[in-house]
Write a structure and sequence with these properties.
heterodimer; A: 257 residues; alpha/beta; Rossmann fold; six-stranded parallel sheet; 11 helices; 60% helix; 12% strand; B: 215 residues; mainly alpha
Chain lengths: 257, 215
């Protein structure tokens, strides 16, 4: 047996230990401090607006396939679709979910079904009409534009890994007069989300979204774990920078192992 | 279906498969390599099965609409359903019968699919342009931070920019190399950590938004 990528393995073990400690903290009843994230708090407001206007809430998920680099953002978005479905079910709003990736459809269906069930109105969800699937990235935009022309939603929540479709979809929704909440983990399009949407999730906020809205203490403690992991990363970055300045390049080589 | 199959089995499968795939990144061992390759093949197989299911699902959804000449939910829905079914059968028959590299398949692809795809891309392009304009309006402090450097970079990239403002080059380079790069690196680190911890939460069964209800 030969080991490779030793430093990566070490970091993975460190993160796993931090996650384990976070779950232990949850079992002891420790509630971590989590600052307010306006974009996540605004989801209730978005659904409320849909109820007032008698129009649907449209939840679109980014076009990243399952099993790739961007799976984390997609899973987080699907969890938030479930949370939004729960609110829609309680408040009595129609909810549509859009995607351009067929792999996501069964997961979205399950999330929507459970969300509406938990909210107490499972009959309000219809798989055939409430999941809008568009076969590719550009058809996603065209399909959303058609949807806004026929029956414009009152609010749109865009979460997941948005790429080239991001700008146009935001524009379509904005022209349709929708209240917009956006968040993407795909770096190049994040500035546009921030500039166009009413509320935007910045950076890794999308990954903690499901933990933020959850009542599960263990999930909330994973946000604490992420902060500790970030602190470890900052310390390593400073050590790496200093060692480079003083000419001790062996450390950098070891970091890259 | 029992809770074991609908909830526990996916959790156990996710854990076992994810741990083996992750170990492949750190340990070189023939058994791990074989298992990893097998799992990836299974994944392809599942995808192939879902394509078959999708074929049946589209047939069951659009077939009745075509037969009953339905105008629900939009006028001429039956026509759109018919076009969808025609395209699906055409490409399935050509692809399976002659292969996706055959001249017939490629001809139909070029005359049937490509113009439609090109049209939707072109329409989307206009939306993207107006969205750019919208995002370049200073609505908030955040927009100001976006617009300021963006205008500077636009001027730097345009030939007239360097003529009008000769000192713009070093400033634009400074923004690119130090301010933007450092901010992006910080984001990459944070997003990567977020991805790792979301994956770990999924592997240990804590992130379960996509799973069936609790037992």
């Amino acid at each position: 047996m030969i080991f490779k990528n030793m430093f990566g393995l070490l970091l993975t073990i460190v993160y796993a230990v931090i996650l384990y400690i976070a779950i232990q903290r949850a079992e002891k009843g420790v509630t971590p401090f989590i600052r307010k994230i306006p974009a996540l708090d605004a989801i209730e407001e978005a659904v409320g607006r849909s109820v007032e206007l008698g129009k649907p809430t449209f939840f679109t998920i980014g076009g990243a396939s399952m099993g790739g680099t961007w799976t984390g953002g997609t899973l987080a978005a699907i969890s938030m679709a479930r949370y939004t479905a729960d609110i829609c079910s309680r408040k009595g709003s129609k909810m549509w979910t859009g995607t351009s990736i067929i792999d996501q459809v069964p997961l979205i269906d399950e999330a929507m079904r459970i969300g509406f069930l938990e909210g107490g109105d499972p009959e309000a969800y219809n798989y055939e009409t409430d999941i809008k699937w568009f076969p590719n990235q550009m058809a996603y935009i065209a399909g959303c534009a058609g949807l806004y022309a026929r029956s414009p939603p009152a609010s749109q929540i865009l979460l997941g890994s948005y790429m080239a479709e991001c700008l146009a979809m935001c524009e379509v929704a904005r022209r349709g007069g929708a209240f917009l909440i956006g968040g993407t983990d795909y770096r190049p399009y994040m500035p546009y989300m921030i500039a166009i949407c009413d509320y935007a999730l910045i950076g890794e906020e999308i990954f903690i979204a499901s933990a933020y809205v959850s009542e599960d203490l263990a999930l909330k403690n994973t946000i604490w774990a992420e902060d500790i992991a970030k602190a470890v990363m900052i310390v390593l970055t400073v050590i790496g920078a200093l060692s480079n300045v003083i000419g001790f390049s062996d450390l950098i080589t070891w970091f890259g192992m | 279906m029992s809770v074991t199959f609908r909830r526990l089995l996916p959790l156990y499968l996710t854990f076992i498969v994810a741990v083996i795939i992750a170990l492949r990144s750190f340990v070189v061992h023939p058994t791990l390599a074989l298992l990893g390759t097998t799992f990836l093949k299974w994944s392809s197989l599942i995808r192939a099965i879902t394509v078959g299911l999708g074929f049946i699902s589209i047939l069951l959804f659009h077939g009745p609409k075509l037969v009953s000449r339905s105008n629900d939910p939009i006028p001429y829905q039956w026509f759109y359903s018919g076009t969808t079914l025609f395209g699906m059968f055409l490409f399935a028959l050509l692809g399976v019968g002659l292969g996706v590299r055959s001249s017939s398949y490629l001809w139909w692809y070029d005359v049937f699919y490509r113009p439609v795809a090109g049209l939707s891309t072109a329409v989307s392009g206009f939306f993207a342009l107006t969205a750019m304009y919208r995002s370049f309006r200073i609505r908030s402090l955040e927009s100001l931070f976006l617009v300021g450097p963006a205008l500077l970079i636009l001027l730097y990239d345009a030939p007239i920019g360097t003529i009008l403002l000769p000192g713009i080059g070093p400033l634009a380079d400074y923004i690119f190399l130090y301010i933007a790069a450092s901010a992006f690196r910080g984001f990459i680190v944070a997003a990567s950590l977020g991805t790792i911890l979301t994956s770990m939460r999924t592997i240990i069964g804590r992130e379960k938004g996509y799973l069936p209800e609790e037992a």
